[in-house]
Write a structure and sequence with these properties.
Elements: H1 3-15, E1 19-26, E2 30-37, E3 40-46, E4 51-53, E5 61-62, E6 65-69, E7 72-77, E8 85-90, E9 99-100, E10 108-114, E11 119-124, E12 129-135, E13 138-145, E14 149-155, E15 158-163, E16 173-178, E17 183-187, E18 193-199, E19 205-211, E20 214-221, E21 226-229, H2 236-240, E22 244-250, E23 256-262, E24 265-270, E25 273-275, E26 281-288, E27 291-298, E28 301-307, E29 311-314, H3 320-323, E30 326-335, E31 341-349, E32 356-362, H4 376-383, E33 387-391, H5 401-405, H6 414-428, E34 432-440, H7 442-453, E35 460-464, H8 470-476, H9 479-488, H10 493-498, E36 512-517, H11 525-537, E37 542-547, H12 557-574
Parallel strand pairs: 1-6, 32-33, 32-34, 34-35, 35-36, 36-37
Antiparallel strand pairs: 1-2, 2-3, 3-4, 5-7, 7-8, 8-9, 10-11, 11-12, 12-13, 14-15, 15-16, 16-17, 18-19, 19-20, 20-21, 22-23, 23-24, 24-25, 26-27, 27-28, 28-29, 30-31, 31-33
Helix pairs in contact: 1-4, 1-12, 8-9
Amino acid sequence: MTYLSKMIEELVELLSIEQYGIRGVLSGERLLISGLKEGSLNAYIYDGSKLTKLNRASINGVAWAKYDVSKAIIYRDTARGREQYLLYAVDPDKPEEEEQLPGVKPARLLGVAYDEEKVVFSSADMKGSYISVYSDGKVEKVLTYLGFPVVSDVDDDLAAGIDLFSQSSGRYSLFYANLGTGEIENYIDPEGSITSIILSQSGSIIYAVEMNYGAELKELDIGTKKASKLKLPHSDLEKFKPMSFSWLGLTRDGRLVTIARKEGRSEIFLDGMRLEAPQGMHGSAVEWRGRLAVSHSNMNIPSRIIELPRDILLSGSIPDHVSGTLGKTYLIRVRSFDGEEVPTYILESNRATKPGPTVVLIHGGPFSEYANTWNIFAASMALLGFHVVMPNYRGSSGYGESWRLKIVGDPCGGELEDITKAAEWAKKSGLASRLYIVGYSYGGYMVMCSLTKKPGLYRAGVAGASVVDWEMMYELSDAALRKFVELISANKRELRLERSPIKYVNDLSDPLCIIHPQNDTRTPLKPILRFMELASERGKSFEAHISPDMGHSISKVEDLIKILLPAALFLVRMENKLSDI
């Protein structure tokens, strides 16, 4: 077998590993599962012994199911990646007999919540953002909302969620709607950003607030519109001193399940009492057959379902020759240009020497985080023989509101310097012999910024689904995404023009691989085509791969292959392993 064929075979094996997440419990104590399995994302029910697939064709998401609802709600893009979703209901007793919800028009979905009586969803188009109520076979009400509303829970006539980008400060707020009257209220916590919410059994709203240097739980009394710190029976959670919360849930009898995190790891608490669980990150948790079932992963283990403390219910398997490439994982802190410390995860490759070729991998968002969790991009780089450096640059979540908001009004600014310092650390520490930079979405934008503003630092870069022109992107975006662009640019047109890589095409000198989905509506193709045109006119050398019939989000193994295979071929060629590709 040639090096090339072996590399492709191993990469496809890696991308095809099964992954599972929990999406609630349907009637009959059937666990609702989302699974990257059979080549795509699907919905399944698990009865303790077998998985049963619910959907006919691949889907893009599964709405969270409150205890004992009779049907699963799934959604599917109808426009070849353009994120025009329709909603479907599936009876677990009649798998693959999907019922499209009548009257629901294709739209970008921001959030979905439902109970036995209704489905509430938030969406956006070019004109605005909306909260819609589906019940009794039709859309009964559509409420206009000025912001980026992510509906996450509903109970009777009360729906609630998080508004991400409507506050000019960047602080996330809470909204709740009276579905009977159509009235919507917004609540801003004076101490920080509201990042998770759940409706309590008494009708109040329990929420997590991320403050400058920590996070805590509060409870909002809807009647008085006043919030107070939530008092829990046990003190383990308070002693843990979390930086953020990734999950709030309830047991059947109303006890609070929380997943709290700091420094890229999480712990699970029941009414404030710490529960034994494997190290890594946990996605969601639900009471099932008297025990807690949770999703879990780390950088060496793909997302799986376990019953606490450690009983494995569902798990994909990694071939030994693939898992053996994933080496040591650890967190370091890199001092940036202004003295701030940048939390940075490292994944060493057992196929690379030290010092050896190293990829600086940039996450998207930018309000996201690299943590001790399964990351298919990082695992792929390690498989190819690259050490991986993953900086949580300013703007990243999980390290306090102050760190996250440092990026507002400063794209391609301070965070670029954070990334540069992480790259320089890799060289100075003896990890890296040669540096490459790879990113997708906002990460792709940072690749473009790095190659135009820090020429010579990297041997080459791969920019996937990149922003290259903020102003053109703004003009092409729907109402919700425009809110994001307004926030990141402090709503200043001159800043959007100044911080766009297309302005600095002349400064591009390092090898560049562009990978872009044809039907991307978050980072549209049109600006990339203009960037390529200008680069060609100026004699710049680059290669480009436009992925057909694909949008920004990834829900199929085929989509992963369209992104990672050309990236892999480019990187190994730059390493002179494949001179004939």
